[in-house]
Every structure is written in structure tokens, then in C-alpha cells.
Fold this sequence. Notes:
The chain is an alpha/beta fold and about 375 residues long. The protein has eleven helices and twelve strands.
Amino acid sequence: MTVYLDNSATTRLRDEVLAEMTDILKNEYGNPSSLHRMGLNIEKRIEAARKNIASLINCGENEILFTSGGTESNNLAIYSYVSKLNKSNNIVTTAIEHPSVYNVYKQYEKRGYDVRYLDNDKQGRINFESLKKSVDINTGLISIIYVNNEIGTVQKLDEIIKYVKEINPNVKIHIDAIQALGKLPINMRKLNIDTMALSAHKVHGPKGVGALYINSKTNIEAFMYGGYQEKGIRPGTENTSGIIGFGKACELLKEDFNEEVKKFSSLKLAYADKLKEKIEDISINSILDEEGAAHILNVSFKAVKAEVLVHYLENYGIYVSTGAACSSKQKVENRTLNAIKLDDKFIDGTIRISFGYFNNIDELDYTVDKIKECVEDIRKITKSRR
């Protein structure tokens, strides 16, 4: 039995997405920039994909720019804004951003920029007193992750944006919504922001493609040059099969949205309850109500090494993660768990369980039983070595 519970790292393609992509690779392989019929046909399908993505987040089709993924989307937006700042401006972000944002700001810090990191509470929500102390008339950019990729905390964007705009109406706002797409209702007509990063492979689309929402009133600078694809902001021959796969995934998301979110929420609560019932000395680190994303459950086990547990579980066909896949092979401290002040005795034993389209309640008993078995086995070995 295979139980894949690492959907926040990446997802399996839905069959409908694979069928669309196969058709492109096999039959519609023309270059969208070509003037002949094959080029025009594929160009129309790219624009249909753009429309599907725009429809899912309620924005204009002209406000969707295709990229190679979430990391490029985040970097492109941040680079464009920072290139227009001067050293008197400050940048406000959080300590629990994804590495594709956090590490960018660390580089700018090294170059002398004033980067301010907001505090958060024990659930990972931004502390508003910290926001008030950090944001001022010289704040040029504020960058917030909508849904934390490790513990699933959902930030109160409406309140944050309202306050920030009252202090400085000209501040640029970038949102990393990579874990929010398809899990939260996103309405760009109501969110007063400039840019938002999205990724296909988190929503049962392909790897290697993403998008950047760019408000029609916002100007973004290119950081590479070539042809005039994607308005010249992101030049280069388009990843046609990837883009069309992304568009199909978003079309399916819109059709299934309410049912899928309800299913994720049900699975999350069921796993949390069963784990607490079956296993002693654990900590549930995710918010279980609507202030936490429905698809992410972060849990810690005392006296267990998470890396060991992950490998134990894979022997039973169960796949979970220790945190962000982008950082899992680096031996660095966990910023998010430190930021929420998780007790030291639990930090090393933290895994992330994340749900997707292909998960169902039938996997629950098998998975929790095996987690219990593995945790108890690891604890016995650890105790015997003391």
C-alpha cells in the first residue's frame, strides 16, 4: 500500500492534466511565436490556460505572467521592487517565509538594505504590535507568505494590508501564495496587493511552471532579456505543455474547490485526533480550525528523530516530510518551529503530513498505526542507547 502524504512538497499529476500535456507534447508541439497555424493553435491554448488561472483567483488574464515556478515568481517580484528602492527605504517580511523569499532578503541584508522581520505568536500568526513597530512611511516593500508551508498558518491578509496601506499608501505588497492556491478562496479583486506567486506542482499540475500575478497598475522589471514572450518580462520559448497542464489543473480546482477543501479539513482533523489518541508525548503544531490551511498537519514526537521516522515510514509505503522540501537536505535550524517557540524536546521529531486530491479516509488507520509502531520502535532504540 502506498500512502503519499507529502503534497505540500509536490503533487501527483491528475489524469486530466497528464492527458492535456501528452496531447501538447505529441500533437501540438509548435512554437507559440511562429506565425503558421501550429504556432497560432498553441498560442490559443496558452491563452486558454492563462484564462483558467485568472478565473481561479478572480483577476484579469493580462495580470497572469508565466514563470518556471514559485521560486522564480518570488525572485522576479522581489528583484523588481528592490531595484527601485534606495537605502533609506526599509523592507518588511517575516521570519517564517519560504526559503525562496527568506534567502533573497538575507542576500539584500548583506548588501546593506534595512530588512525587518515581523514577530509572530505561537501559532505563526503575525504579531500586530510588531507590524506597527516595523512599518513606517519609508517602508518600500512588504512581503508575506499567505499560508506557511510547514505548519499551515493562514495570515490575516485583509487586516495586514489595510493597516500597511494606511501608514504608507505607496508601499508595494508581494504575497507568496504557493500553499494557498486551491486551498483558500483567493479574490484578487478584493486583495489590494501588487504581486502574488503561484506554482503548478502544488496543485496536481506539472513541475517547472508557475505564475506571477501582477496587478495591472504595477510595473515589473525584467531581470533577464531575450525575446518578447510574456511581455518581455519573462523571455524565452514558453514551456507550453507545462503551462497548459497548469491551466487544466486550475480549471479542475475551480470545479472541485469546495469539496476538496472540505475533504482536506476532514482528513486533517481525523489524523490529528487519531494521532493524539494513539501516541503519547506528541505536539500538534498546526491550527486545526479555519485559521490553519486545511491540507497541512504539522506534528512532533518527543524522543524521536524526524529523519529516522521518515525513513522508517517509507518502508511501509508511507511518505511524509520533515518540513520544506527545499531545505530538507540542509542541516539548518528550523526557522518556523523556532519562531513559534516549540519546546526543544519536540523540534527534532517534527514531521509534516500534507493532503492532496488522491488521499482519502481509508488510509487513516493504516497510516496512524504504522506511525505509532515506528515511533515506539525508535523510542525503544533511543532509550536503550542512553
